[in-house]
């Protein structure tokens, strides 16, 4: 059986149809990426500011104090739709003495957080049982300002990491959106 009438040389193969999908440029999307990137980087910047505030009391002098009260305070908050929810804050009252003068404090940290779970607030109080001797960090310029934790950096690190991730990814998407499709 002869296949002389079938020529499969490259010259006889019809060219494939070129199907270039032209990517539509959307300037709104570009600037949305840029806007979100700037917001994320701003959030990271605020995290750095918060970090410096959260660690400022690490340089404060310390004095021995004693826990005199501990409780979980309950707050009722309103949502934008009018419904309510409860938050809880761990509060440990303590006394301390500086240069013969007694002071009372109640702040665990410079920026105490309200919790949505009462159990989390109770866990925060475990090291602060009534009668326990504790280290008190106090502001040398204002001894009434005192805290029990040398730093509270979790929120600051969360803001920095989330802000950088969002900001850098959206900034990369912004620059990628300017690339032309290759032919």
UniProtKB/TrEMBL annotation:
Biased composition (Polar residues): 1-11
UniProt domain DUF3592: residue ranges: 63-151
Xref: Pfam families: DUF3592
Region of interest (Disordered), ranges: 1-22
Keywords tagged on the record: Membrane, Transmembrane, Transmembrane helix
UniProt superkingdom: Bacteria
Keyword Membrane: yes
Record-linked InterPro entries: DUF3592
Transmembrane segments: 31-51, 156-178
Full protein name: DUF3592 domain-containing protein
Higher taxonomy: Bacteria, Pseudomonadati, Pseudomonadota, Alphaproteobacteria, Hyphomicrobiales
